[in-house]
Every structure is written in C-alpha cells, then in structure tokens.
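Technical note accompanying the year-one report. For the benefit of new consortium partners, we illustrate the data format agreed upon in the data management plan: each record pairs a sequence with a structure-token string. No post-processing was applied to the example shown here.
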Amino acid sequence: MDNYTQLVNKLLKENMDNATPHSDTSLRDQMEALFDEMFDAIDAKDKTAHEAVLKKYEDLRTQAIDKFGVNGPLHLIDPDLHGAYSDDFKDEHGFRPRDSSFRDAVEFYPSGEYGKIVDGRFIAPPIKSYIEDQEATSDGLQAILQKYPSEVQDLKNGGELDDKLFQELFEYYLDSGEMPYGVAKARTGDPMEWVHDKLEELGVLNDNEPAHPAEDNSNAITADDLKTLETVKALAGGEAQGGLFSNPEKQIRKAYGQMLGKVAKNMKNVAKKI
C-alpha cells in the first residue's frame, strides 16, 4: 500500500470515528432541558433547588467530557458555556468563533470562571448558587455604598460606575437573586447598566429627587430635546443615522466616557417621548 493510500485511509478512519460521537446530541439535549428548571429556582429564590439543578448539569457535563474529551465540540459538552463564549468572543474579536472545542472556551477565561484544564483533565469550579441565604443581612447594599462615598458621589454627578463598586454591587444583586440570570450572563442585558438603573430606581443617585419622578404626560418634544438630538447625532459621527440609539446611555458613555453622562441621560428622556 503506497503512502497516498495510507494517508487517505487514515483520514477516512478519523472522519468515521469523529462522525458518530459528534452527532450524538442526547447529553446536550438533557443539559438544555435543565435551563427552565434553573430559571424557576432563581425566580423562586430557592437556593437549595438551584444548587440541585446545577449539580445535575455538572453530572451531565462530566459524562459529555468523558465521551468527547476536553478537545471535543463545545456545543455538545457545555451548551451554557457555548452561549457565553460565543458572545464574549464576538465582543472581543468582532466575530463569532466557529467549530470551537471545550478546551478553547475554558482557556478563554483565565480567571477560571468556567473551570480549568490541568494536564489534560478538566477541573470544574465549585458549585455555587447565585441566590443568597435568607438570613443574609438586609443592610448589605448600604454597607457597600458606604465603602465608596467618593465613587457614589461621582455617579450622582453623572460619572461612570467605578469598577470595584460595580463588582461588589454585581455580586450583591447576583447572590440575592434580584439580578436576572440572563443579565448576569450578559445575554439579555448589560449587568453594569442593570446595576446603574437599579441604583437610580432606588433613589441612590438622586439625593433631592423622588425615587420615581412623575412622567411627562404631554410627551411633547421641546426645543431642548431637539438640541439634545442634534448634539448627539453630531457627536456620534453618523452612528445615529436611521433613528435613535437603542441604548443611548450605554452607547454614548462607551464612546465618549464620563463627559457625556448628562447628555446621555437627556437622550434617554427624549427617547421616552418618541
């Protein structure tokens, strides 16, 4: 048998070996079927139930790793990580990954958020519910805010949410179960924006204003509103063509930083009238 024939036979054998296990979606389907159970536990703030379903998910993932190996297809081994990795990879590189392995995704997060691979073996992170125990102190939020007086004041003045302050607030709302699972995973919303809106809703950012200011029933576009629109369109350099920003506060702040915090808030108020 010549070298060419040997090479062709080897490739055919590899393809046949890979085709059968990689077409088996049974474990993935079972993991995806647990998502509704996860959401129900989170909505009910049932920490015990949440940890139980997380354990079920981990057991299925372990079976998938044993079947496909750490270099196997991500979407068949860990559908939850597959969704997060696809979104985060796109945010960093501008396009979604293709044919990713489980190893690719795990090693994309050096912090070990989704575990680590050591000497070819997957080390899973500890099972931890996002739901805080019922006996948790009710003054946790105030305790966090009191640790960052200058950062809170900066927020009140239209500044950005400090990274350290955000991290503590993120963990607080995650552990309490108040932050939706999809937002926590940055799939159905931006965690930083959610925390900022929550502080605004509680009146933390408005010392001299009610937590829920009265709505403008007239919905009339004023001269100041038009000025805000024109200013933002000019600053956006064409990004505003075709209509208002879908998320003016986030997009303007990201582009221009703290200086346009107040302009972004004005833009949000105008968007409510449209």
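Partners are asked to follow this layout when depositing records. The longest helix spans residues 47-68.
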